[in-house]
Fold this sequence. Notes:
The protein is an alpha/beta fold. It has helices at residues 62-66, 185-190, 221-224, 236-249, 283-287, 328-338, 367-381, and strands spanning 26-37, 40-52, 74-79, 93-96, 119-121, 138-145, 148-152, 162-173, 255-259, 275-280, 294-297, 313-319, 339-349, 384-393, 412-419.
Amino acid sequence: MDDKADNTAGNSVxxxxxxxxxxxxxxxxxxxxxxxxxxxxxxxxHFGQRVSMWRDIFPPAIYDQLVDREQSAExxxxxxxxDFHAPYDNRLLIALRAEQFQPVIRQNGQxxxxxxxxxxxxxxxxxxxxxxxxxxxxxxxxxHDRDRLVFDLNHPLAGHALHVTxxxxxxxxxxxxxxxxxxxxxxxxxxxxxxxxxxxQNRPTHFFDAPPLPRIDERPxxxxxxxxxxxxxxxxxxxLLLSNQYGDLIETGADVLDLMAxxxxxxxxSLAVSSLTVVGLNEVELHRNPRATNHLVHDLNxxxxxxxxxxxxxxxxxxxxxxxxxxxxxxxxxxxxxxRPGGTLIISFSNRWFAPKTITLWPELHECERxxxxxxxxxxxxxxxxxxxxxxxxxxxxxxxxxxxxPHADPLFIITAHKK
Length: 420
């Protein structure tokens, strides 16, 4: 089964017209930033809602390939390290005394100790020229040099060979717009996290010592989820984009297992699967799932093992739920048992969760760093080959959304792996 989630955000392009994008027009453009980490394919997709061809700054060669092109036209560019606005700089590798690392105190009152490979706000670092306590830019702890703490202040993507794709989704206007904000699109699509899903020099990132991972609410999950919650956990736009991704990644006729499921599995209506087994904690929610062929009420935090046969499915999906597992590696090992050889595991999440029941580590992680956390879980499970990570951001929030104060749709973070 091929990974295709790093190619597009889904089949959402409107029918093409003969209208062409002028050098002073505006358009909706879908940008994709890709890079390789060994055999792992990473892709960050960013929707540019109102891109000004006259005012904005584009990655090298992208502008010339888009001007005078019709809707659905694509431009591509492979960037050298010097093309990136924040190339790697050895001077940004700094060694500090232990007392210069001054993080906030955790909710449980414990002092935060820097862990190898983890990212922290630069504002935690004291006495460093040019860094202020309010700085949220990333600093990566990479280890010790004798009695010093070594941090890398480089952009997480610095040093990677990057490939950019831009696709015209819609031509908005051919008129010149004077004034307004100038958007640097390479900076925009690479800002706020891309690169954090990668290891540092191929060394494992240390996120936790041993299960169970703590949560604020340690009561049995069956109590918390006793009442059915027949509500959407993602906004309408994010649900459509996730459905498109699942449609690209899951083959027709597959036997699918939905772990920690609810009343919707986000499979596109056009995707015909042989079976969909839903495993969750609320029987009412599971039986309201219109695509489900089998239902299983089961608490994976109480018992990671499922009463299902070995190699029972082709695909396992886990949507917006990985953050609730107190022994996620054990559950992923069980997923490996249930998958057929070469089968696909797809884990997706956003930035919304039930705070009392998520592991306390989750909100401490940057959004893109959470992909790195899930990647390490998969590596520890020992039965998977990591395929790809995909982030999707920047889409406008639906007009009828109950949270109109939020400018963008819920972001999506997706990681795929294959049974060895």
